[in-house]
Amino acid sequence: MSELKVLLADDEPFILQGLKEIIDWEKEGCTIVAACSDGKEALDYVRSHPVDLIITDIRMPEMTGLEMIKTIYEEQISDAAIIVLSGYDDFSYCREAIRYSCSDYLLKPINQNELLVAIRKQVDRKVELSARRAQNEMLEGAYLLHQVQKSLGQFSGEDTISYLSRVFPAEGKRYFVLISPADISGMEELSEAELKKLHVKVAEGLQELLKGHEKYLFTELPGYLEPYELGLLYPEDDISFPRLEAIWDAANRYLDREQICYSLYVGKSVPDYSRLAYSYSSASTIRNFHEMGRGKKIYYYERDFQVRDVQEPLLSKETIDEMVDAILENNREEMIRYTDRLIYEIGPSGENDPTGSRVNINLNYMYFRLLHLAIDQDETINQEEVMRYIGDNVSKMVEGKDFGEYLKRFVLEYANYLIQLKEKKEGNEDVFSAIEHLIHDRYHENLTLKSISTDLYMNTSYLGQLFKQHFGISFKSYLLNYRMEVAENLLKDTDRKIPDIAESVGYRDTGYFIEKFIEWKGCTPSQYRREVSREG
Questions:
Q1: pTM value?
Q2: Cβ distance 166 to 230 under 8 Å?
Q3: Which CATH architecture has domain 4-128?
Q4: CA-based diameter of the chain, in Å?
């Protein structure tokens, strides 16, 4: 707990000095922040500095102690506790001091024990208030988080909207902003501890910038944010709120730009919190689709990712619409026909489109058509899942060399993907059973989710999401756990050497294997073997 900040006020210098020396302030958990010679000087200090306890004389020049106390009380300048010192045993002074909520009234000469009791009472009071405040903040934070989650889902009623409007007042437009790594694939290489450390670092940088507006920042929103992401309610018309460029700077200030860089994804503007879900959804959409505008700091849904004019000459709207209809009908021949036409109109690898605008416009329009096609097919479909699936493939088209071939393959895959979505509940068990068998048979190989998805003719990103939903952990964690279980049994049941066991469970680097085993069991493989031997 922070120390109690104490202000002393007395016009007699030797009494001020005596007050400083009569108590071991540090031992009592206190710090003297000011020693003033009159009430006016003390009042000026309290107006501009936080103070927890004021110990003041009654009679002083310029302004008396009672005048100072009355001003603090009536103008609500501070909630500091006040101990009054007086050489006058006059009940009228005591009565007036109590009227202004003074904590104690002590007579001079000061009795050290009496003063200690009064001070300790205020230290205990601050501890109690701090604990109560912390508990209230925790409860308020949990309630606020719950209300924001409701507003982003399908359960936001009038009470939720009214509450959010009070907590986050805004006159004009407001946005949901996702703060997320520009290259999400790079996060897969980080451990949970590294992810948490990164997340804390980004959060601290943003909270420092948003002083006074910290409640607008969400470091977690279960079900809506990934563990490495943050969310921000952004009131555009609030001039006291930091601009988006400054927010981007704060998010990236302490990061290694070469490795990981965060981007801002600004959702659709909404007039009030009843439509906040639309802003979040659009921010999430462009987060999953951002590779089309690769390298930007800030992406705006309304500026960068909407097809405003369907008559735009660069847009092959009719061809894309026909292609989407063919996907809906699962007509392979028509899909290939209209994809070939689209490739011809855009130009192979965008060669007729040096600025990339034609490719961006057409892929943007196709993205939204395919997204809505999936949603129209089944409203219960996980939209986040679909957006990630499309966005992952579209980004590969943009950065890949053979644009046309990738586009054609994706269109054919997407038709199958829609069927998979519908049949997911019935067919997934067979898929997961096949994956388990693959892991159990090939755990000692350089096994990756990408290699398994290739074997099963499934999209890697989509399979990764399904795997985590089914097993509750990522593929990488599942494989690690299985390897460690096998290693544990080998250590118990055989006398094989540690490097041999490491290689047999898929680790060529013995040091890395030992590191992972320590994370798994809390001890080295050798220590584990000795412990098991003793128990046996």
A1: 0.48
A2: no
A3: 3-Layer(aba) Sandwich (3.40)
A4: 104
